[in-house]
Amino acid sequence: MFNVSLFDVSKFCVMKFLSAAICIFLITAYSVSSQSYFTDTGYAEFTSSVPLHEFTGKSSHLSGMIDFDEELIDFYLDLETLKTGNSRRDRDMYNTLNVDDFPFAEFTGWIDTEIDHDSHDVQSVTVTGDFTIHGITREMTIEGTLQKLSDEIRIVAEWVHDMTDHDIEPPGILFYRVRDEMDVKIEVSLLRQDD
Question: Which candidate in 83, 178, 182, 190 could, as Cys together with 170 as Cys, close a disulfide (CB 3.0–4.6 Å)?
């Protein structure tokens, strides 16, 4: 027969309750403090032009993450997911960007702006970091907006980028040369990651 007192049973129950409560507290505290967000379905577009003609490469495969604990941001794009709506122009764009040797564009940096994590309003943000394309990295600062919802971050940013900073020779169309600068736009919804 087992010799178990009421005191032993109550002590066991209290210990189980405390263990469960501590586990729940640690899991809750960790998930609340975790400020990491991710996406692999962000939207990116690159627009270039020649006189009287403009074309845009679009992709819905922008991948990225934001870690607010570390104030880090990282986005990358498989350049072969960019489509202009014309397969010949796509091939010319891939050749210009030399995607066989440099298949990705990537921005890695940090958040310069103080963010109100309790606000659901659209906030202006500035990030600084390294943008790599065509195998060449340049530091740059990008301004955009951020909106923090319950389990989601929405980011919109637009900037003008000079292709010659990365030794990219803009192609010509007929007698015209594509301008050196391209307009870049991203729209991203990142979901909170449960660790």
Answer: 178
Do residues 182 and 160 touch, judged by C-beta distance below 8 A?
yes
Q: Which CATH architecture has domain 35-192?
A: Beta Barrel (2.40)
* pLDDT tens digits, 170-192: 665 555 566 678 899 999 999 99
Contact 119, 101 (CB under 8 A): no
| 8-state DSSP, 34 | -
- Choose from 1-15, 20-34, 63-77 the range with maximum mean pLDDT: 63-77
Query: What would the two tokens of residue 172 be?
Result: 């010509």
Residue 161 has pLDDT above 50, yes or no: yes
pTM: 0.74
Domain ranges of the chain: 1-33, 35-192
- Here the tokens at position 136 are 């060449």
Instruction: Name the CA dihedral angle for 151, 38, 181, 166, rounded to a multiple of 10 degrees.
Output: 160
Q: Are 152 and 190 in contact (CB under 8 A)?
A: yes
Query: How many C-beta atoms surround the C-beta of residue 148 within 10 A?
Result: 24
Contact partners, residue 141, CB within 8 Å, separation at least 6: 112, 126, 127, 128
DSSP conformational letter for 166: G
Query: Per the structure block, which two tokens stand in for 181?
Result: 């600068």
